[in-house]
Design goal:
The protein is of the alpha/beta class. The chain has 15 helices and 5 strands.
Length: about 375
């Protein structure tokens, strides 16, 4: 490939972007608008909250009876049993569970002696709305169990002092359960996906509509050089959108950023490469801007909005729908952004998401190169 030819195509595309104020508005104004709109307006209901239990009093029948209240509830799904806090921390950091119940070794002894039995609840507060609802579910279970204990005490003619479970909650990553801290990273991912694919989806289609593609075909520019030349300006705009999103998240909405900006840049580059390449692939298939923009919206906006975990928790979806979400790249990018913003995750926690984004970028870029041909028909 010839770097000069790529630079010429990129310069031409930058000139077209400057001459088209609508594209600039689409790239800058809409992300700000979406951040403001979504940052102030979502609420959710959930069930089957993924839970890990560390039962240090497993030999007691009283403890097992208490846990049955969670096992038999539709609002909880006990997915793992831990043996230490390190296992719990790893499961919560990786997003595999949202709640952790820690039952101390003297739990049944306290109950039997009529004292308040301590019960620790650890909550992943990065999804503040879900965490709030889940905590209320736990409180409801504990309150019902305490009521049952009280009834049993009176039924035994009050020979023992009233027994109860003393729930002690601790919220991780989002102590104030601020919903914006959960929403904003998801909005940034949605903007990156939709804007990137939408902008590039019309760039080649525009050449066909304006009749300038024939002129490009007659030049020595090779298809890979043309694709890369078209790619670079929108890659720059994509990073500008990312910068706008991060700055607004920090300064406007007060979302903390606990991770590495370098890691954010590298993983965002992978995601952007895939999203932009998908737009170029769409643009190569649809030779009109209207059809290209419609296809881009259909293949990016709807999956990102509904199937990425941005609004609806994936674990709360039907199994068949959950299987489809594995094909939505925004699902992995949202996990990365929320992990970097709220948890300060490092690469060892996000390897799976990074590998998928790399495969997505390679697949989309390869398909875009293969599909585009320097032919009029």
């Amino acid at each position: 490939m010839n770097v000069k030819r790529i630079k010429a195509i990129a310069s031409k595309e930058f000139i077209q972007i400057r001459r088209d104020p609508r594209s600039l508005a689409l790239a800058i104004v809409i992300p700000v608008f979406l951040l403001i709109i979504f940052g102030y307006g979502l609420s959710l209901d959930i069930d089957r909250v993924r839970t890990v239990v560390w039962n240090q009093d497993a030999s007691s029948q009283l403890t097992r009876d208490f846990l049955l209240n969670f096992k038999l509830s539709k609002y909880f799904k006990i997915v793992r049993y831990a043996d230490n806090y390190r296992d719990i921390e790893r499961l919560i950091d990786s997003g595999q569970v949202m709640l952790a119940l820690v039952i101390p070794k003297d739990f049944s002894h306290y109950l039997a002696s009529g004292k308040k039995s301590p019960l620790q609840l650890l909550v992943d507060g990065s999804d503040s709305n879900t965490a709030t609802i889940a905590m209320n579910y736990v409180r409801a279970v504990v309150s019902r169990y305490n009521a049952e204990l009280l009834v049993k005490t009176f039924a035994g003619h009050g020979l023992h002092p009233p027994r109860s479970v003393d729930l002690r909650s601790r919220i991780w990553f989002n102590m104030g359960l601020n919903s914006r801290w959960y929403i904003i990273p998801g909005v940034v991912a949605m903007i990156m996906m939709i804007i990137a694919a939408l902008l590039t989806s019309i760039c080649i289609a525009r050449e066909w509509e304006r009749g300038t593609m024939e002129q490009l075909i007659s030049t020595p520019v090779k298809p890979p050089e043309l694709i890369i030349g078209k790619f670079l300006p929108y890659f720059t705009i994509g990073f500008l959108d990312l910068a706008i999103g991060v700055v607004m998240a920090r300064l406007v909405f007060g979302v903390p950023f606990m991770g590495s900006y370098l890691l954010l840049s590298v993983l965002s580059a992978l995601f952007l490469t895939g999203a932009l390449s998908q737009g170029i692939l769409i643009s190569s298939v649809a030779r009109t801007q209207l059809l290209a923009s419609q296809l881009a919206s259909l293949t990016t906006f709807i999956p990102t909005m509904l199937l990425s975990g941005f609004i609806y928790p994936i674990f709360n979806m039907p199994k068949a729908v959950q299987a489809v979400t594995y094909l939505v790249p925004a699902r992995y990018y949202i996990v990365i952004l929320r992990g970097l913003f709220l948890k300060g995750n490092t690469m060892d926690v996000m390897w799976d998401e990074a590998v998928f984004l790399l495969l997505f970028a390679l697949l989309m870029f390869g398909l875009a190169l293969r599909k585009f041909k320097k032919k009029v028909a």
